[in-house]
Design goal:
2 domains, about 450 residues, UDP-n-acetylglucosamine1-carboxyvinyl-transferase, Chain, four-stranded mixed sheet, five-stranded mixed sheet, about 30% helix, globular, alpha+beta, 25 strands
Amino acid sequence: MIVIVDSSNSDTNSVAHTQTNSLRYKDDAVVVSPINHLRGELRVPGDKSISHRAAMLGAIAQGDSVLQNFSSARDCAATLECFRALGVNIVRDGSTVMVHGEGPSGLHQPQHVLDAQNSGTTMRLLAGILAGQPFATTITGDDSLLSRPMLRVADPLRLMGAQVEVEANGCAPLRIRGRRPLQPIHYRLPIASAQIKSAVLLAGLAADGTTTVEELSQTRDHTERMLQGFGAQVERNGDALALHGGVTLHSCSLMIPGDVSSAAFFIGAAVALPGSDLLIRDVGLNPTRTAFLSTLSRMGADIQIEDERQEAGEPIGSLRIRNSALNGLATSLEVSGPTISNLIDELPLLGFIAASLGWEMKLRDAKELRVKESDRIAATVDNLLRMGARIEEQPDGWHLYRGGKLHGAQLSSFGDHRIAMASAVAALAADGPSEIAGAFNSVAVSLPEFWSLLESVAE
């Protein structure tokens, strides 16, 4: 649920920015100074979620899959390295990746532990594929990934007949001894999670029969779209997805759309800065990923879609964002309920945007934010408090009170790419410079080009 409440009184003042030298780098810290607005156009790299899935399905398909505009994110590079270790021939030339798949039995036991680095998508989806392979593997990751819950994916894979061991705290490393065929199951997801759904569906490819996954609410549907594109039989009936196992996937050539989750930070900055006029070309507009755009539009932002079309089974288009003087509306935003699952990555950014605009924001039902790359509830609240916002941390969200302009401060990325970029958005609209510790390298997990792209449109 998203509730936007208008208020007739406003205590928010618009302050003109005078500094234009927006970014300075100090080792791994970035000093972000306020700017006037964002102007111009840019393209963001290929969608992370789609890139992961395209590489994985190409690896277990028959033939050569050519993936253009593949994500530059470190997370997606981790997926490629894991499949190389599993014996898949993968050639990368810039943003084009060719995956030579040898079918469902083409993977081989790796000679060493697989390293998913910081990527929860890599670990959880790969676990689904490895559950259907007749050999033992172990998947590990960095300290952040090793602190994230993995029983949620281990449990359904165990029901399908794979042996999956986790640590005593329910976290990785994952030790998987797969089998083929697996047992098909009807599984109702305990939480709204595209990663768990995808892991079960990918395991279902190796099952003898039909595997059904029932969702609490619809999550991003890239996996089922792409499975169909690679030749799998997937049927949706209400909240349930049924996949027929035993099918050999065929190779595909795909143009991967720009990542809307990466574009979100530039969209948010344009909304927060008066006078902005920004065009972001060829962005994925999958309806399970556009709740952020819908929320900003309902808040009064001027976001127009141009050149809308289909690419690789996904809707795509260009976004033009113009600032609509939201600073003076003095309204309140409430976010809760089923919509949380389709806003989960952008919730911290929404918090920083709301604070920059002087809005009130009440967030509930977002406890899942606590088990991301950082505790994103605590990290958002901590940085906004440092910038002078009045905000109270809640077990499953926060209550941000209406206030005046944020001021520059010493901030932290908390080792989290999304917190680093969301903090930078708020810093662009604040009074005075902010230094974000650990921000320069942390963004490489999803968008290593973030700082250079930001500089290219900052005025």
